[in-house]
Amino acid sequence: MSNIIDGKKIAKELEQNLKKLVIEQDLHPCLKILTCCPDDASKIYLRNKKKACARVGIDCEVLELDEQTTTIEILRQINIWNEDKNTHGIIVQLPLPKQIDVLRVQQAISREKDVDGFHPNSDFTPCTPEGCLILLNQQGISVAGKHCVVVGRSKIVGMPLSQLLLRENATVSICHSHTTSTQLKEICKTADFIFCCAGVPNLIKKEYLKQGVIIIDISINRGEDGKICGDMAEDCKEICSYYTPVPGGIGPMTVYTLLYHTIEACCNTGIDLPF
Questions:
Q1: With a threshold of 0.90, does the pTM exceed it?
Q2: 95 and 39 Cβ atoms separated by less than 8 Å
Q3: If you classify domain 28-110 with CATH, what class do you get?
Q4: What does pLDDT average to over the chain?
Q5: Is residue 204 classed exposed, middle or buried when 0-12, 13-18 and 19+ CB atoms within 10 A define those classes?
Q6: What is the pLDDT of residue 273?
Q7: Where, residue-wise, is CATH 3.40.50.10860 in the chain?
């Protein structure tokens, strides 16, 4: 019988420490979010970010631009926020419309305010990869000496997650869109941990797994039935020892890590993460 790793519950417990810090140090952290026609996953994260900010005492303001906006318009707004000493964190919610130069936008955010960790020289680690390891740490689960398979190689999740896992002394394999289904099955069969971040419903199947594997399902997809789901097929739960649900697993931990980064940027001191 597999065990659910309840990211929602753990994130709320950790949020209490942040709320206490904000009150005790009389902090006034402010997070600014810019978005353009968010997709389903982005809408979920935006809603959850605003609610979580309110819970810990972070002022969160969302600016939504229309689909016809330009790179220059976004850069102009980022510059305003960069210069505002009362703005501590800046997020540009992905995805952006096709005409936007995403790299230029990400690099325009001040590294000290890039709480998402997307700037090449950001002061912060990307929230989702960091949130994965915080979650495992809270469960007392170590990746050291284990074979970790990361399915997906995006610049904001898969690749930085692989680097974090290496830092934690895991042996890491990366699968991606050019990995064949046969190769994916062979590689996953040897995995102690599988981190799913490909964005493909039912990509990870029961027959790909060895008994007792731990699955961290990061993706947020909408299945054929219209319901929110991850990359892991439902029957994988019969094989794995632990797994993160979608929703309610990594999403809340991503938001928690964002809150921490914003508060850290506000007080500009080293606060120990539980990681």
A1: yes
A2: yes
A3: alpha beta
A4: 93
A5: buried
A6: 46
A7: 28-110
Q: Which of 93, 106, 138, 231 is catalytic?
A: 93
pLDDT in tens, 74-98: 999 999 999 999 999 999 998 899 9
CATH topology for 127-250 is Rossmann fold (3.40.50)
Q: At what angle do helices 250-267 and 127-138 cross, to 10 degrees?
A: 110
Q: Tell me, yes or no, if 106 is annotated catalytic.
A: no
pLDDT (mean) for 243-251: 96
Residue pLDDT, tens place only, 170-218: 999 999 999 999 999 999 999 999 999 999 999 999 999 999 999 999 9
pLDDT band, residue 1 (cuts 50/70/90): low
The average pLDDT across 60-76 equals 95
Q: Is 49 a catalytic site residue?
A: yes
Extended strands (E) in 211-267? 214-217, 221-222, 228-229, 242-243
CA distance 275 to 273: 5
Q: 3-state DSSP call for residue 187?
A: helix
Residue at 23: amino acid letter: I
43 is catalytic: no
CB atoms within 10 A of CB 168: 18
Tell me if residue 23 falls in helix, strand or coil.
helix
- Active-site choice (32, 106, 113, 116): 116
Q: Exactly one of 32, 49, 113, 138 is catalytic; which is it?
A: 49
For 22, 35, 84, 105, 182, the CA distances from 127, given in Å and listed in that order, are 20, 18, 23, 18, 31
